[in-house]
Design brief:
The protein is of the alpha+beta class and 777 residues long. It has 4 domains: 4-212, Cytochrome Bc1 Complex, Chain A, domain 1; 235-333 and 369-395, Cytochrome Bc1 Complex, Chain A, domain 1 (2-Layer Sandwich); 421-588, Metalloenzyme, LuxS/M16 peptidase-like (Cytochrome Bc1 Complex, Chain A, domain 1); 600-767, Cytochrome Bc1 Complex, Chain A, domain 1. Helix content is 40%, strand content 19%. The strands form 4 sheets. A 6-stranded mixed sheet has the order 1-2-6-3-5-4, sandwiched between helices. Strands 11, 12, 13, 14, 15 and 16 form a 6-stranded mixed sheet that branches. Strands 17-21-18-20-19 form a 5-stranded mixed sheet, with helices on both faces. Helix 10 runs antiparallel to helix 13 and helix 20 packs across helix 21 (675-692). The radius of gyration is 27 Å and the shape is globular. Residues 16-157 form the Peptidase M16 N-terminal domain. Keywords: Hydrolase, Metal-binding, Metalloprotease, Protease, Zinc. Its EC number is 3.4.24.-. It comes from Pseudomonas wadenswilerensis. It holds the Pfam family Peptidase_M16_C.
């Protein structure tokens, strides 16, 4: 179902792109301002990033409590912003009913921000907390070190994040610079507004004209050109087993961004004959990544990152990388560009409204390379190979066509739904998006080590499936393994067939131990990753040290119990899936839903870090009331802990369904507050909550509307059905949840608020430090 794109310029100079995509259920807006951290005065590092934060603090038209962030969250959407070197982005995705209100708030906050000094002082402390976390993050510091390759005169090598000392908000010169930056760049001639959704182009244009006119008229400002890179020779940086190869490239013609994506697609391809496969065959490579760290005005800094085994020779790896680039430059790229065109069409059809809007605002269409793009690629490769080998020495191969891009549905005899599989009607086949979950309960003590084997074995299929718009996930949680596959139904069936074959008999190379998973460097993320296992009562046990083999996997499958759920498939695809699921290893069966004991439990987990992180999961029995309470809690929790107390930039509260368990999830990461102080602040908010609760009809209607299938993303519908399945509910209906939300009365809401505050249903607290004494609760 192709989308339609329309580009226009409003009378005030605002560039607008409109995309009608009838397959979408949600809509999105992206504002791209051609100004970033390198455009701010050098005297005030971080000014552009600081301004990005200030926009979200409310203005005269919409106060903080009714601003973009609260409004979007109220309607179950998502919103964010990003400051880069030469541009700044603001974007959101919401159900259609909330689109006009969200767009109005976005445009108003950018056109008419408030520069209240008291708010600036508070927000500067948030920026400083981000700076502290950034300065302690090894990955961020590694990237900052790599950027030094641009040379001391290039702004890439300078500090741009901002902190308490660079953002001198009390200085009149700083305030003048802040207002001047906004006036100069946040005007119509410097902005692109992109809208995407199922609405007609006429409807989208009416919205753009209505709200886009709020920006002051203006013309495009010529951003200052950056100085030349220090040099253009490839640079190798080695730190233990991490090897980074940097390619400063300039000058490049227009269209080089698409050429970079084209190159990254094929350089990173893991199929036989390519660079990653060759390095892995030699036992050298653990992980490979390739991307652009920076791009502007014909300059780009490309980065190839390789995590190597101890036996690898870094210089030989670098030589092989150059050899592959020489091969690619000399190859006939016509056929592979046709494959890229198929891949791009698939990406466009499966992209979310938000992804479409952001790509449109950046001018990055889902298209094959045209003549200009091919010329940019030629220049790019010429620059990367300057002074290096120009004739390839190895017999490299271009990737073969991905068969999953051309899968066709086959009409065969109908097959009944197998035992163990539940078919949910919640996602209609008309959405052309199927989802299947398969879950195994395991008893083998070797399950964690065997999961690592199977996860490596599925990697190549995962990548091929992703190119075809199907997402394959294989996860482990305590005694459970879960396989999830989502996307076009016909392709999904083909992927599941291959995945099940691999799970039974993984290829021999998968048994070779791979790289250990990289630990989460951000403590709150590490706790979030560990939360599902902790809810299930996970106990850390040493892994058996024996050698594992196919026979161990066979035994594991023999004693495993599985069940699953599918939704969204046509009758033909469901029948084909039924046949495929007939080959699921293990035996079909049911198992009891997870239950959380009504006790207060503190679990200290890694990583130990310089910042304190804490997650509090409060179980909730009634989903409807729990979701409504979470909606009421979100604003006061954020206002108190993030805005007023400045505990840190990672502060959130939400309703979550995890392993079939409903609950309120509260999270805080702070560079200054202790765990005891965080707990005390959370208690204060929860204790005060019953007195502030509102049970008005409008709020209940807004929440109930989020659970209309037509307003939910397809994946959210499937996940809701799966969580209900894990909780033991048979064929739940979204309409029942909506009715329960609308029927909530004040006593229900007050009762749950008191239960939560007093932990009557128990608490699970995860923290990267010990409990603050026996009376922490």
């Amino acid at each position: 179902m192709p989308s339609a794109l329309h580009i226009l310029t409003l009378a005030n100079g605002l560039q607008v792109t409109l995309r009608h995509a009838p397959q979408l259920k949600r809509c999105a807006a992206a504002v791209r301002v051609q100004a970033g951290s390198h455009d701010a005065p050098r005297a005030w590092p971080g000014l552009a990033h600081f301004l990005e934060h200030l926009f979200f603090l409310g203005n005269q038209r919409f106060a903080l409590e009714d601003g973009l962030m609260r409004y979007v969250q109220h309607y179950g959407g998502q919103v964010n912003a990003s400051t880069r070197e030469r541009n700044t982005e603001f974007f959101f995705e919401v159900p259609p009913a909330a689109f006009a209100g969200s767009l109005e708030r976005l445009c108003q906050m950018l056109a008419h921000p408030q520069f209240d000094l008291e708010r600036q002082v508070r927000e500067r402390e948030v920026i400083h907390a981000e700076f502290i976390a950034w300065s302690r993050n090894p990955q961020a510091q590694r990237q900052f070190a790599l950027l030094q390759a641009a040379g001391s005169e290039h702004p890439l090598s300078a500090f741009q994040a901002g902190n308490r000392y660079s953002l001198q908000v009390q200085s009149p010169a700083f305030q003048a610079a802040l207002r001047d930056f906004h006036q100069r760049f946040y005007q119509a001639g410097q902005i692109t507004l992109s809208l995407s959704g199922p609405q007609s182009l006429d409807e989208l244009q009416a919205l753009a004209c209505r709200f886009g006119q709020v920006f002051n008229s203006g013309r495009k400002v010529q951003q200052a050109l950056p100085p030349s890179f220090n040099n253009q020779a490839p640079l190798l940086v080695r730190n233990e087993r991490q090897v980074d190869v940097l390619y400063p490239c300039a000058p490049l013609p227009a269209g080089f961004e698409q050429a970079v994506d084209f190159l990254a697609t094929w350089l990173s391809d893991t199929r036989p004959g390519g660079l990653p496969a060759t390095l892995r065959e030699r036992g050298w490579l653990e992980h490979f990544e390739f991307s652009s760290l920076y791009g502007f005005a014909g300059q780009t800094l490309l980065h190839a990152g390789l995590k190597l085994h101890v036996t690898a020779d870094a210089e030989q790896v670098r030589a092989l990388l150059a050899d592959w680039l020489a091969f690619f430059r000399a190859a006939d790229l016509g056929q592979i560009n046709q494959e890229y065109a198929r891949l791009q069409r698939c990406r466009e059809l499966t992209a979310s409204a938000l992804e479409l809007a952001r790509r449109d605002s950046a001018g990055q269409r889902f298209e094959a390379l045209d003549a200009q793009g091919l010329a940019a690629l030629e220049r790019l490769l010429e620059t990367m190979l300057a002074g290096q080998v120009k004739t390839p020495t190895l017999a490299w191969q271009l990737p073969t066509a991905n068969p999953l891009l051309n899968v066709k549905a086959e009409t065969t005899q109908a097959t009944a739904v197998p035992e163990g599989l539940t078919v949910s009607p919640l996602l209609p086949p008309s959405r052309q998006h199927g989802v299947i979950y398969l879950r195994w309960r395991l008893t083998s003590a070797l399950r964690e080590r065997l999961w690592q084997v199977l996860d490596r074995a599925l990697q190549a299929l995962r990548e091929q499936a992703a190119q075809a718009g199907v997402h394959l996930q294989f996860s482990a949680c305590d005694k459970y393994w879960q396989l999830r596959c989502a996307g076009n139904g016909t392709v999904l069936v083909a992927v599941i067939e291959q995945a099940l074959a691999i799970l039974r008999f993984p290829p021999s190379q998968s048994w070779t131990p791979g790289a250990a998973n990289q630990p989460d460097v951000m403590p709150i993320r590490a706790l979030l990753r560990q939360l599902p296992e902790q809810l299930l009562g996970y106990q850390d046990e040493p892994l058996p040290a024996c050698t594992i083999s196919q026979s161990d996997l066979d035994t594991l499958w023999e004693y495993s119990i599985w069940n699953g759920l599918s939704t969204g498939l046509s009758a033909t695809d469901q029948s084909a899936l039924n046949r495929a699921v007939g080959k699921v290893p293990g035996r079909a069966g049911r198992y009891l839903p997870a239950r959380i004991e009504a006790v207060r439990r503190w679990q200290t987990l890694p990583p130990v870090a310089s910042e304190q992180a804490l997650l509090l999961f409060c179980p909730v029995e009634d989903q409807a009331t729990g979701r409504f309470l979470a909606q009421q809690l979100q604003g006061p929790f954020y206002q108190r802990l993030r805005v007023e107390l400045n505990l840190g930039y990672a502060v959130f509260s939400a309703f979550r369904q995890i392993e079939g368990c409903n609950g309120l999830l509260l999270g805080v990461q702070s560079p200054s507050a202790s765990h005891a102080e965080i707990v005390r602040h959370i208690h204060t908010v929860l204790d005060a909550l019953p007195a502030t609760l509102s049970c008005n009809t409008a709020d209940k209607q807004a929440l109930a509307a989020q659970f209309d299938e037509q307003a939910m993303t397809n994946n959210d519908v499937a996940e809701w059905a799966w969580q209900a399945h894990l909780a033991g509910h048979q064929q739940p209906l979204l309409s029942d949840l909506q009715a329960a939300i609308l029927a909530i009365d004040p006593p229900q809401l007050q009762h749950l608020a008191r239960q939560t505050s007093q932990a009557e249903l128990g608490w699970l607290c995860l923290a990267n430090g010990p409990a603050p004494g026996e009376n922490w609760h």
